[in-house]
Amino acid sequence: MIPGHWRGHHRDEDGEVLGYLRPEGEGHVPVTPFGHALEGPLSEDEARAALDSRGLTYLADPWMLTLPGREDPVQVRILEVSPPCRMRVANADYGYDGVDIGHVFEVDVPVGGRIRPA
Q1: Which residue, 42, 62, 77, 87, could crosslink 47 as a Cys pair with Cβ 3.0–4.6 Å?
Q2: Is residue 1 part of a domain?
Q3: Number of domains in the chain
């Protein structure tokens, strides 16, 4: 679950959650709706600008998910992010043994170090 002290940042046009501002030291780290840090720490204005400039484009990118008990991460595509508590991703790694293509994993948010850009 997204911690209560993280402040949501919403798109002006429609109120969509673009991410959160995670306090760190004297600054703020802009994080995705699933808790992946994008930059930082930055000033509050810079962190908000970083979220505004990226929008939700990272949702279309490939990501690498570390699974419990597996050494190599699996490439996934994000299907759904439902802050504040979970996200769903699908296996997109044709070379990954033991997990069918399209298999859906549910991941608690924030994801911590379990997911990273591919």
Answers
A1: 42
A2: no
A3: 2
- 47 and 68 share a domain? no
pLDDT at 43 over 70: yes
* Shared domain check, 97 and 64: yes
CA distance 55 to 25: 25
CA angle 61, 47, 23 (to 5 degrees): 105
pTM above 0.90, yes or no: no
pLDDT band at 112 (very low <50, low <70, confident <90, very high): confident
Task: Give tens-digit pLDDT for 6-35.
Answer: 999 999 999 999 999 999 999 999 999 999
Residues 32-57 as b/e (b if ≥16 CB within 10 A, e otherwise) read bbbbbebebbbeeeebbebbeeeebe
**Domain extent at residue 15:** 7-55
